[in-house]
Design a protein that fits this description.
alpha+beta; 32% strand; 28 strands
Length: 597
């Protein structure tokens, strides 16, 4: 569309022109705004979480289809944590003032979805949900989610998706971290399997006779739903959001039966759809409370499908675990009665629920917190290794994507830049290396040999080789102050190869805590929040190597004189690094054998 003057809106791909000013618009972004009506609410006038799940899935699906150019189906939905608990209120007119974090009749729900990254046949869609009080002019976040969609097949051929090109800094960060989230998603099943195997050796639960105990059988719910055309897309496949809404409904009933009071959904563990459902299917939904903790409970829910008149048995569509709380009149969680599991499978579900609670806390503790809220050193546990590794790599990618770096010093094309971001001072060192990125990645991956080129490393040894990509090291460094004790660090090193062309190789470091290597009086324990290498191929035989460090108080003294321009120790160190790479470029086979890279 064209215009005669400068006041009209001109569209050219992703960029709009408004009064001669360029405004960027993500081509996959979809926005939905819904007024919460009585038909969307529960008996207390609050927005039904099942309805919200349907809106989230619809918005995300439309975004995915904008990128794919064809129909898409929901493959999975990552953990959803409700940021603001929906409090129980008496039904009031919409013009009454409600609590800030309550989504009620008369409020507006705003949902924004956009594709973060496209892979071969699947794509990640990021969803942000907020609520708006029109009468007070206020808006607040409700939840954030990530969904995976798959382009529907055309015949027997899989559709290969076109790549998504990030434009803004925010998009570049999400694009980069999406690859790490995908990795975590793929490892989710193995993580759960290992967790449940560990829980299998736990002792059976013992219930006290003096406390309030509710038999789990009392909370069991079974319901059937007939899939009709309004529940499905134009190809006849049931909307993923509709299935999630039905599952949330039976889970809420089961949770409410435990304490004879209305239960509020707080978190949903990852949904993974195992197969499709179509119009005409009968969906059998079952839910039961697996375990009750002090102020929350876990409800297990599953969905199966069958067709009337078909000889096929029930098809397993989905299983999920949802966490509920019950709030009193002041909006505070009440103490819940204990659950008495059924013998056999009931005890197994009880033990597994207790194990999942720890995993859930780890995920929230490590992943959901803002970077400033995560402590420098996080306890290492085999159950949280996937999430610590994710946090390690994603934190480095987020640091690398930041702008406003200030060049402080440059010597022979080795650059030192700094970034002041809130309470953190970060620095990065950049250099060009005439060698392939994959070769440099292999050489720098061995942290035990860093003592050969970095004078700040006195000794480095492997504590635990977690897998081919993650290793825990014990590092000893000399003190900057003469006469002071040496420092030691316990570091998790996470290595990542590029997910696609244009992605860098990554070697990320962060501190962890191990019970076998606690702080001692011999050394001053130091901590690293975020550090590592980004190794990006820029030509046939030219690579940009960048070292990042979000300086902690223990690390800052090593670099302050360089930042102030009083010395160039950084240059000496990385000149030594270049020589080390040059010496070892012909020993790649040895590095590959040692590290299975």
């Amino acid at each position: 569309m064209t215009s005669q003057g400068g006041n009209s809106l001109l569209q050219d791909g992703q960029v709009f022109s408004l009064q001669n000013a360029l405004i960027y618009c993500n081509p996959t972004e979809v926005k939905m705004s819904q007024m919460v009506l009585p038909c969307h609410a529960n008996h207390q006038g609050e927005l039904s979480m099942g309805q919200l799940l349907k809106w989230i899935d619809t918005t995300a699906c439309l975004s995915a289809e904008k990128h794919a150019g064809c129909s898409c189906v929901t493959a999975s939905m990552d953990d959803i944590h409700i940021e603001h608990t929906i409090r129980q209120l008496q039904v009031k007119p919409a013009w009454h003032q409600h609590d800030k974090d309550t989504v009620c009749v008369g409020h507006v729900v705003n949902i924004k979805a956009k594709v973060n990254r496209a892979f071969n046949s699947s794509m990640e869609v990021g969803i942000q949900v907020s609520c708006e009080n029109l009468f007070q002019g206020k808006e607040w976040n409700v939840c954030k989610a990530f969904a995976t969609f798959v382009a529907s097949k055309q015949g027997t051929e899989k559709i290969r998706l076109k790549p998504f090109e990030p434009y803004t800094q925010e998009e570049q960060v999400e694009y980069s971290i999406a690859a790490e989230r995908r990795r975590m998603r793929l490892a989710h099943a193995e993580t759960i399997k290992a967790l449940l195997l560990k829980s299998a050796v736990q002792e059976e639960c013992n219930q006290s006779e003096t406390v309030n105990v509710v038999p789990a059988e009392k909370t069991r719910v079974e319901s059937v739903e007939l899939v009709l055309p309004p529940h499905a897309n134009h190809q006849g496949y049931t909307f993923g959001g509709q299935i999630m809404a039905w599952m949330e409904n039976v889970a809420t009933i089961a949770a409410s039966r435990l304490c004879n009071s209305y239960a509020t959904l707080r978190t949903i563990d990852m949904f993974h759809f195992r197969g499709p459902s179509q119009v005409g299917d009968r969906l059998v939904l079952k839910a039961i409370v697996n375990s009750a903790f002090k102020n929350s409970m876990e409800v297990g829910v599953c969905a199966h499908a069958y067709r009337e008149g078909s000889e096929d048995s029930l098809r397993h569509l989905n299983s999920a675990f949802m966490t509920f709380i019950v709030l009193d009149k002041e909006g505070q969680p009440i103490t819940l009665p204990q659950i008495k599991p059924e013998p056999g499978d009931g005890v197994r579900r009880y033990n597994e629920a207790n194990a999942r609670k720890k995993l859930r806390l780890d995920r929230k503790y490590i992943i959901s917190c803002k970077q400033t809220e995560v402590p420098l050193s996080v306890p290492w546990d085999p159950c949280n290794q996937v999430y610590l590794s994710y946090n390690n790599v994603s934190a480095l990618k987020m640091l690398a994507a930041k702008r406003n770096w200030v060049l402080d010093s440059e010597k022979n094309k080795v650059k030192l830049s700094t970034l002041e971001d809130g309470q953190f001072l970060s620095f990065k060192i950049e250099m060009e290396v005439p060698l392939e990125a994959s070769t440099i990645f292999l050489i720098l991956s061995d942290l035990t040999r860093r003592t050969e080129w970095d004078s700040h490393y006195q000794k480095c040894e492997v504590i635990q080789k977690v897998n081919d990509d993650d290793t825990i090291y014990h590092l000893i460094t000399p003190s900057v102050k003469e006469g002071s004790k040496f420092q030691d660090f316990v570091l998790l090193a996470s290595r990542r190869k590029p997910c696609a062309a244009g992605d860098p190789f990554v070697i990320a470091f962060r501190s962890v805590t191990l019970p076998t290597h606690l702080a001692t009086s011999e050394y001053t324990r130091g901590e690293v929040q975020c550090a590592g290498f980004s190794i990006l191929q820029q030509g046939d035989s030219q690579t940009k190597v960048t070292y990042y460090n979000q300086a902690s108080p223990e690390v800052l003294p090593y670099i302050t004189t360089d930042i102030a321009g009083l010395s160039s120790g950084y240059y000496t160190t990385f000149e030594s690094c270049l020589k080390y790479i040059e010496r070892n470029k012909n020993n790649i086979t040895l590095f590959m054998q040692e590290h299975k890279l």
